[in-house]
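not sure who needs this but someone in the group chat was asking about Orotate phosphoribosyltransferase from Halalkalicoccus paucihalophilus so here u go. i didnt clean anything up, its just raw.
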Amino acid sequence: MGPMTESLPFADRTDAGERLAALLDDREVSADLVLAIPRGGLPVGRAVADALSVPLDVTVARKVGAPGNPELAVGAVGADGSLWRNDDLIARLGVSEGYVDSQAAREAEAAREKRDRYRGGRDPLNLVGKAVLIVDDGIATGATTVACVRQARAAGADRVIVAVPVAPPEALADLETEADGVIALSTPANFGAVGRFYRSFEQVPDEVAMTYLVG
């Protein structure tokens, strides 16, 4: 194993998933199932689920964008309506409650449609009393990941751990207040974007992403 395989960048999402699974094994982290955040989280989640010999499902949340700036998250909402609000930003921007509520309802509906499309008619995994691992290909802000954690808790999960290949320290700090554990292979302070930490980071088409759920 040369130095490149021991450090960043990851070759691709499957490589990242395999290395994340090895870290989970080293730390003796176990789970009953893996929930991947599509689309990029599915190849990572598949590798982790296979290594742990547990089933894989999807968890979907969407950003609630600021007025006139959809990339800036004033919140995030899960497919079940579980909402995380960035109250500081909402107050600073003077965003109305009506705007947050209406946007959250619209994004929750979009998240439900996406979740159902990925499942293709399969029943969701039962989370009641389970130890759940939420996996993505990386975290930039953590907004949608927080909504996914809340969604898993609302579905009855007993323990929720977030595991990702790469994330900035401040995003992990926020997640640690929500999840029972947060694990990352790399936490670079000079972050930028998730794709910087992969040699191959092509978009994963829906039809390809769905194939990772069948395994």
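also Residues 62-117 form a domain with the Ybab; Chain: A; fold (CATH 3.30.1310.20). if thats useful
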